[in-house]
Amino acid sequence: MTQPSIRTELAAAVRAVNAAFNRLPREAQDALDVTVDGLEGEVDAAILSDDRDRAMRAIRAWRGHWLHRIKEAGR
Prior knowledge:
By secondary structure, this protein is an all-alpha fold.
């Protein structure tokens, strides 16, 4: 079986984070600091390096980071 592409995995992670964000109440969305950090840079660098393992680790780290922040914002 063929593995999903890096871009497919990235798109799935973005959809998961966007869906979690959209479930937050408006006031929690407004309070969440969504400034870009080093994780986005690592995702970009990993994808450009064409290193699948690195890219997958970066995508999982980005997804986990934002899902955690969104969960915390919803409390």
